[in-house]
């Protein structure tokens, strides 16, 4: 789940709604975005360790950051924007919340009240009862269809560690594994790659089901070594820090081959790289 404080959620939503222009990139880029080889039928994208990326979930989308991978909001990013990124040689990741309900999404009314648990620390968000896969699968499948139909290469499913939080439901590690594997299958059935968001304790069981990882603040919490199974499997770890300067984590990131960024909490355009 997102680690940054709940008080910032209101700011985040206001920035998204206003589509304001975020601050420019603070680095000089990493060279031209590559032209990716054509995928064979049934073959999905597999990002490799160290792949540079941009993570922007709020504000007017800035497509000028010179990196090969963009991770952007699945609902707010249009099919035309995804196509433009693809024409420029970028791969695109569709951010979705799959473990928590958000009252500001257009499909919020499709979720029965009985699926909704306690708040997850973000305004307008509540944990989902992931035990109820029969109810959740069609709801998530519709969201994954949206990502596929917009042309995304992959999905970043958020809030994937409800069992480690006070969700309002008696969730276990086995419930989480079952649900996370369902989420991976929904992506793969649609030809998209999928990233494991945080959920560090279950990496050994899930590294084979997921194509890459997305992590927040592993350096701040001294957890980055737990992500090495993805690197050893030849799979990228897209990593962001909010409170640490690059001087505090880049040496370790380079040693571990993480794709690391320093971001501001609103996850706008601004970034610093190692």
The second-level CATH architecture is Alpha-Beta Barrel
Beta content comes to 15-25%
What is the tally of beta strands? Answer: 12
Strand order of the largest sheet: 1-2-3-7-8-9-10-11-12
Distance between the termini: 24 Å
CATH superfamily: Aldolase class I
Query: Biggest sheet: strands, sense, closure?
Result: 9 strands, mixed
Helix percentage range: 25-40%
Low-confidence stretches: 3-39
The radius of gyration over CA amounts to 17 Å
Summed up, the helix count is 7
Order of SSEs:
HEEHEEEEHEHEHEHEHEE
* Helix-strand category: alpha/beta
Q: What is the domain tally?
A: 1
CATH class call: Alpha Beta
User: How would you sum up the global shape?
Assistant: globular
User: Might you state the CATH topology name?
Assistant: TIM Barrel
- Roughly what is the average pLDDT, rounded to an integer? 89
InterPro entries: Aldolase_TIM, GH, GH114_TIM-barrel
Keywords: Signal
Region (Disordered): 23-51
Protein name: Endo alpha-1,4 polygalactosaminidase
């Amino acid at each position: 789940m997102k680690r940054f404080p709940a008080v910032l959620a209101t700011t985040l939503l206001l920035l998204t709604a206003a589509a304001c222009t975020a601050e420019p990139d603070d680095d000089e880029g990493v060279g031209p975005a590559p032209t990716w080889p054509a995928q064979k039928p049934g073959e999905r994208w597999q990002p490799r360790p160290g792949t540079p990326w941009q993570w922007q979930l709020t504000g007017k989308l800035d497509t000028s950051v010179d990196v090969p991978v963009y991770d952007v909001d699945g609902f707010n990013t249009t099919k035309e924007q995804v196509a433009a990124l693809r024409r420029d040689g970028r791969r695109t990741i569709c951010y979705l919340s799959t473990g928590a309900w958000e009252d500001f999404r257009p499909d919020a009314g499709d979720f029965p009240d009985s699926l909704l648990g306690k708040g997850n620390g973000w305004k307008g968000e509540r944990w989902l009862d992931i035990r109820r896969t029969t109810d959740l699968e069609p709801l998530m499948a519709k969201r994954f269809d949206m990502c596929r139909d917009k042309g995304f290469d992959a999905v970043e499913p958020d809030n994937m560690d409800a069992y480690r939080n006070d969700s309002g439901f008696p969730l276990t590690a086995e419930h989480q594994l079952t649900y996370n594997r369902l989420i991976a299958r929904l992506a793969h059935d649609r030809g998209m790659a999928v990233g494991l968001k945080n959920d560090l304790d279950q990496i050994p069981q899930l590294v084979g089901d997921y194509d890459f990882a997305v992590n927040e603040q592993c350096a701040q919490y001294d957890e980055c070594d737990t992500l090495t199974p993805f690197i050893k499997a030849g799979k990228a770890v897209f990593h962001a820090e909010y409170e640490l300067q690059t001087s505090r984590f880049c040496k370790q990131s380079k040693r571990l081959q993480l794709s690391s960024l320093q971001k501001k909490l609103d996850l706008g355009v601004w970034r610093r790289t190692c």
